[in-house]
């Protein structure tokens, strides 16, 4: 029996088993507060397990965002081990985020032997602070050629140690950065931390115009993660899902999302059991999940936490993706994080809700209630728009990936055009400022600051309709929402770019305002003038209409906004003079680091397309064509038989017609597959990575993927169902 039919037969059984099997685990702890961060070495646990001295040192490092003091490292390490041993932990690992897109771990045991052979458990400061995994098998974009292969991981104490429980035991995880021996970053976290620091420094300077007490500005992130859930046996029967994370073939089912009956509907039992289970693990790990619901497409769901400090939020997202994957397997389910697992129905994104908060407790993107706080809000609001405007191409590059290409601009997600949505009311506010602040600032202008922007927020949220859903970057009342980020992405990359762009823009703002103040302008007047200038300079990027529409694509072109649809070309923006200047000036990336990252992203792209191309060819020749040919033979024999017994031609014209159609699809599919393989060979022969990636995109994917798929999907409809071994969309999406 084929895997498809086994999967279908087993479904009822697995489904009940999974629901029943997990229910007992859920009743154990009623309150989330009772288990929250149980497996995290929080400051309150540090208080318990560390000496006063060590605790203070750790606390200071966290506050200052610095590495921990070497002289305290042993004490801190011993405290962490003591705590983790109370939880039954035997191994530890430096947990990091290399540019592969997944997390990496290399486990070592506490267990060791003393020189005389006595077995002991030990965890020294050195092991806590720094490790030296072999960097050579992680992507390094050529950095390895010039530098040593070794890299090291170093603890970043702003993200606390935690214990990961898997079926096989418990491991103490130390969140670290990963850098080459000569200091080039090889991961997502190291540049993110630099960007957070750059933003802090520029934002504090600007805050001090309004409030001298601000000494720290923290970027905040609340992500919304979309995903699909399908049955594991069905998943296993689809080699394309196993290998590529998406279906390269599959005819739409008769019903998909057109009835809109899935969105916010009741969550299916089996998925609900899975959600409860992964949520519980998330809480234990200190991930503050808040929301769960069905998404638009059948089989699609979303979860979102309460926002946190950016670096921690990024760790929590990557950790959660891992947890979801593992817990799903326990439930005999699979989570699909791919941006577009199924053609013809909505894909998945990861909205990045972003803002900035001061250590005085102010959200800098929350409209003020007084003239002074209004001006502060406007300052950060307009600077964000300016940053997005000035660095739109680099932001576009930061969300580019082979899988996100399927989603951007497919009329279900924001287009590849980077624009900003701010709502009617704030549009009017910005227009007023533009028109009213003259060369000389006067009393009338001062009255503008008295506007009650805060009160307009309910109105703004009312405005929060379908329109803003189509925008890649929308202001939603007290934060901006970067919606074009893909569901598989590590948020660190887009967040690094956004925060760096903001840091650079605020720095420029400060310098522009100071110049006017030196010329004798009153501070508020100088600020208003620069705000006005920035509004004018960046208004091109503001768009309130339907981002999915063709008119917008045309208008954007007239406005001169870039609309780069594919990854290899979008990535060009990472290595322009502008990008080098932005990242080097702000201390985020060196020239060679940027070039390396560019190379890595291109390679990731082309390898993904290459794998998909191979998968398409393999499934075509080993699954689809054989099934179609078996059916073709059936028809041939049928027609032959009918002829043999002397039936008139007219009685089997439909069989003949069917045979003709079938044969045409078989033939065209088969020749397209051969041609695609030829195109791949040509692309492979190219030396230059960028050219190769473009060739894979244009000559392999664009020319052949849809074409081959068209015939395969037609064949799926024609061929006898029992000859078809790949689970169909209706089975993948609706049966669980
Ligand atoms: P929606 O966007 O679906 O209407 P919410 O507005 O409640 O939902 O928020 C979505 C996400 O935005 C949540 O993760 C939330 O914690 C986050 N969020 C809210 N305020 C901020 C903020 N100041 N900074 C960053 N994220 C925030
Ligand atoms: Mg949202």
How would you describe what is shown here?
InterPro entries: Gln-synt_C, Gln_synt_N, Gln_synth/guanido_kin_cat_dom, Gln_synth_cat_dom, Gln_synth_gly_rich_site, GS_Type-3, GSIII_N. The protein has 736 residues and is of the alpha+beta class. It contains 26 helices and 17 strands. The protein has 3 domains: 35-187, Roll (Ubiquitin-like (UB roll)), CATH 3.10.20.70; 197-589, Glutamine synthetase/guanido kinase, catalytic domain (Creatine Kinase, Chain A, domain 2, 2-Layer Sandwich), CATH 3.30.590; 604-734, Up-down Bundle (Four Helix Bundle (Hemerythrin (Met), subunit A)), CATH 1.20.120. Strand 3 and strand 4 form a beta hairpin. Helix 12 packs across helix 18 (492-518). The radius of gyration is 28 Å and the shape is globular. Bound molecules: adenosine-5'-diphosphate and magnesium ion. The site of adenosine-5'-diphosphate has 15 residues, from strand 9, strand 11 and strand 14. Residues 220-222, 224, 304-307, 353-355, 363, 476, 478-479 line the site of adenosine-5'-diphosphate.
Query: Any ligands, ions or cofactors bound here, and which?
Result: adenosine-5'-diphosphate, magnesium ion
Portion in beta strands: 5-15%
Class derived from helix and strand content:
alpha+beta
CATH class of the largest domain: Alpha Beta
How many separate structural domains? 3
| Global mean pLDDT | 89
- CATH architecture label name of the largest domain: 2-Layer Sandwich
Helix content: 40-55%
Separation, N- and C-terminal Cα atoms: 20 Å
Q: What would CATH call the homologous superfamily of the largest domain?
A: Glutamine synthetase/guanido kinase, catalytic domain
Biggest beta sheet summary:
9 strands, mixed
């Amino acid at each position: 029996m084929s895997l498809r039919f086994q999967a279908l037969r087993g479904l009822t059984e697995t489904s009940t088993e999974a629901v029943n099997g997990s229910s007992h685990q859920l009743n154990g702890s009623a309150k989330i507060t009772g288990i929250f961060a149980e497996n995290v070495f929080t400051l309150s646990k540090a208080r318990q397990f560390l000496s006063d001295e060590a605790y203070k040192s750790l606390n200071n490092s966290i506050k200052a965002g610095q590495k921990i003091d070497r002289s305290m490292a042993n004490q801190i390490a011993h405290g962490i081990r003591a705590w983790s041993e109370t939880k039954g932990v035997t191994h530890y690992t430096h947990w990091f985020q290399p540019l592969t897109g997944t997390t990496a771990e290399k486990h070592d045991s506490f267990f060791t032997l003393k020189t005389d052979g006595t077995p002991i458990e030990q965890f020294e400061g050195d092991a806590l602070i720094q490790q030296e995994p072999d960097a050579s098998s992680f992507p390094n974009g050529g950095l390895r050629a010039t530098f040593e292969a070794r890299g090291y991981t170093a603890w970043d104490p702003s993200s606390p140690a935690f214990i990961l429980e898997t079926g096989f035991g418990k491991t103490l995880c130390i969140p670290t950065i990963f850098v080459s021996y000569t200091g080039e970053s090889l991961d997502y976290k190291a540049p993110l931390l630099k960007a957070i620091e750059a933003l802090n420094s520029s934002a504090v300077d600007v805050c001090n115009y309004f409030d001298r007490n601000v000494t720290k500005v923290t970027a905040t992130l609340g992500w919304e993660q979309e995903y699909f859930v399908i049955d594991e046996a069905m998943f296993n029967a689809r080699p394309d899902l196993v290998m590529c994370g998406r279906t390269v073939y599959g005819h739409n089912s008769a019903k998909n999302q057109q009835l809109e009956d899935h969105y916010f509907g009741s969550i299916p039992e089996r998925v609900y059991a899975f959600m409860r289970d992964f949520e519980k693990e998330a809480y234990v790990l200190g991930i503050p999940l808040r929301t769960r619901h069905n998404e638009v497409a059948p089989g699609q769901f979303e979860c979102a936490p309460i926002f946190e400090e950016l670096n921690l939020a990024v760790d929590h997202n990557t950790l959660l993706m891992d947890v979801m994957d593992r817990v799903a397997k326990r439930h005999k389910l699979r989570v699909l994080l791919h941006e577009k697992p199924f053609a013809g129905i909505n894909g998945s994104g990861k909205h990045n809700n972003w803002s900035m908060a001061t250590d005085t407790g102010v959200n800098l993107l929350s409209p003020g209630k007084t003239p002074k706080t209004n001006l502060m809000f406007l300052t950060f609001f307009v600077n964000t728009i300016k940053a997005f405007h000035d660095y739109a191409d680099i932001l576009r590059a930061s969300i580019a990936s082979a899988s996100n290409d399927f989603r951007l601009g497919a009329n279900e997600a924001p287009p590849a055009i980077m624009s900003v949505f701010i709502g009617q009311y704030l549009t009017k506010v910005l227009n007023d400022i533009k028109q009213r602040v003259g060369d000389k600032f006067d009393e009338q202008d001062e009255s503008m600051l008295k506007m009650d922007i805060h009160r307009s927020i309910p109105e703004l949220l009312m405005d929060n309709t379908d329109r803003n859903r189509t925008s890649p970057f929308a202001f939603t009342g007290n934060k901006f929402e970067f919606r074009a980020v893909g569901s598989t992405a590590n948020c660190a990359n887009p967040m690094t770019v956004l925060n760096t762009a903001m840091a650079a823009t605020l720095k420029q703002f400060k310098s522009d305002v100071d110049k006017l103040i030196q010329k004798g302008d009153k501070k508020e007047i100088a600020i208003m003038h620069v705000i006005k200038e920035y509004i004018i300079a960046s208004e091109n990027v503001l768009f309130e209409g339907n981002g999915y529409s063709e008119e917008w694509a045309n208008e954007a072109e007239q406005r001169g906004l870039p609309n780069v649809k594919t990854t290899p070309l979008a990535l060009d923006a990472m290595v322009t003079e502008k990008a080098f200047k932005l990242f080097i000036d702000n201390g985020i990336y060196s020239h060679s680091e940027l070039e390396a990252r560019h190379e890595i992203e291109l390679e990731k792209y082309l390898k993904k397309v290459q794998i998909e191309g191979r998968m398409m060819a393999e499934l075509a020749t080993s699954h689809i064509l054989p099934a179609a040919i078996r059916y073709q033979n059936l028809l041939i024999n049928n027609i032959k038989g009918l002829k043999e017994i002397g039936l008139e031609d007219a009685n089997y014209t439909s069989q003949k017609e069917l045979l003709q159609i079938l044969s045409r699809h078989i033939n065209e599919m088969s020749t397209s597959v051969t041609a695609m393989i030829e195109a791949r060979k040509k692309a492979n022969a190219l030396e230059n990575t960028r050219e190769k990636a473009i060739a894979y995109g244009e000559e392999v994917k664009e020319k052949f993927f849809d074409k081959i798929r068209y015939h395969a999907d037609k064949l799926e409809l024609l061929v006898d169902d029992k000859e078809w071994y790949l689970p169909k969309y209706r089975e993948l999406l609706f049966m669980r």
